[in-house]
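Hi all, long-time lurker, first post. I run a small reading group and we've been trying to get comfortable going from sequence to structure in the token notation. Rather than ask abstract questions, I figured I'd post a concrete chain and ask someone more experienced to write out its structure so we can walk through it together at our next meeting. Sequence below, copied exactly:
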Amino acid sequence: MSPPDPHLELLSPARDADIGIEAVRHGADAVYIGGPSFGARSAADNRVQDIERLARFAHRFNSRIFVTLNTILRDDELEGARKLAWQLYEAGADALIIQDMGLLELDLPPLQLHASTQCDIRTPEKARFLQDVGLSQIVLARELTLQQIGQIRAQTDCKLEFFVHGALCVAYSGQCYISQAHTGRSANRGECSQACRLPYQVLDDRGRFVAHDKHVLSMKDNNQSNNLAALVDAGIRSFKIEGRYKDMAYVKNITAHYRQLLDALIGERQDGAQPLARSSSGESHFTFKPDPLQNFNREFTDYFVSGRQIDIGAFDSPKNPGQAIGHVTQIGPNWIELQASDPDTVLHNGDGLCYYNLQKELCGLAINRAERNGKRWRLFPKDALATLPDLRKDLEVNRNRDLDWVRVLEKKSAERRIGVWAQLGDTSDGLTLTLTDEDGHSATAQAALPASERQLSKDPYAAQVPLRESIGKMGDSIFKLLELHVQFAQAWFVPVSLLNRLRRDALEALEAARALAFARLPRREAVAPPVPYPSSSLSYLANVFNASACAFYARHGVQLIEPAFEALQESGEVSLMITKHCVRFSLSLCPKQAKGVTGVQGTVKAEPLQLVNGKEKLTLRFDCKACEMHVVGKMKPSVRQQARTNHD
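-- Answer (accepted) --
Happy to help. Here is the structure in token form:
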């Protein structure tokens, strides 16, 4: 295998081109965004023209644009997907993120291909296969440990990508069919109904309550801030932030947060045996202090990176609980009094507060007006106090929306600049200015200054001041002056207007030189002859939805191929979700947890549990050998009938 790539890539999400531009401005080395169709977030589509605008901006900094083409496709959609791929290529996209292997059977443009999270990459064998069929970058399953990541790294040399922040799908990505079974909306086609965020009654095999109205399939949010160095050592080179549905403030803040962490890590290892580097150009400066706690989150977990942990679920609520700020000291007719835990806490009109009622449900407490009352705060909620359940003295209150913070991020909050060195010299007939940027690109501009118009400065030192001031004014360009070296035969006095023109011409020439040097990412060649797939058969879990995907797997030695769940017209009970998360373990009912506990060993068995939400019923079955949970159920008759109608 090749030596490890020293370049680290911060990969940010974008719901639209404007958010993508701000992601780049706040330090993203790459941005992933949906095109006009076939992206696995149906409400985050973008026109090709907008992606072209985003690519033009990003490429100025050598940042890359990856476009999601990661739904599974019907046969009648393949030609549309092929045409879109060519349109995206012509628009300047750098890579396509795909799930459907049928695309590899088509005439695609010479774009780099990346494996989507829906490809469910958990083993070295599957990772190596995807690399060998021509994928340059693969995102690994979020459930992997550092050791498992290292094992995959040892068998591959493509770029490994890993989610470091954001919402967690409880199922292995691409392995959840509850939405399709219950509503006909396929998660693998970008229309997930998020059944995992619903509350459920948990019943044992005798119908007894194990948990009541708990969101037992809802995970806390991913946060790998403390694991970046370990992930680098394990082989990760692309650090992905989840969030193509997230707003501008989230993308700005979380991108800036990880930019600072990765830059610090790069700085720490600059002089080491294996120095690290950024994947793009320029340095971002922020008008705010990045803080992940300020954005929507369900509290944080690092999931399975360091091994199985019991506290990974957001079982009480899928909403944002915010951060504790104080407790209620008094309740008036239309106000409450709050004692802040930190005396420096400032509350604002429009802040969002919340608290847990006696049923452990999260209740909102939006503030219309906040007034300081000595060492305490008098708050006037937007809603009548009578409508706020269980509001009482000594109640702990959280803040989940700081309006002052929101307003900071609504404004310009970052600037990204590429450092340049400048050399100003004189010739027999004028001046020359050469700019060299941090990537080694150079450009020179010249301006005439006839001998008859030249004047010597009476103060050679003072003559340097306007030179440095004028050349240093980079204005709205993407550059910043690092150092100016003046090589004049004599201490000339140079008109400011001439210096300004010289600087503008040099900056324009340097930007043109960078654009000319920009290169598209190379497409990885597939290994020939075709490598065999790790298995000779595929179940519905492989998501094969079209004839081209069938042909692809057949070409790679697969003999038995079941259709995707979305294509099934008849189905009994099947695994609608497979997850590393185990409800038994999280509720302290795992047989392995009982080992060694006096009086308990042998009495706890991994018997099925049932989840009930209204009329919906699901069965939890536990594969203790694999340490996995299967959520089992049936396709609704109405959905089955619709699938039959579509097929006919």
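A couple of things your group might point at:
The two ends are 49 Å apart (CA to CA).
Residues 2 and 157 are 6 Å apart (CA to CA).
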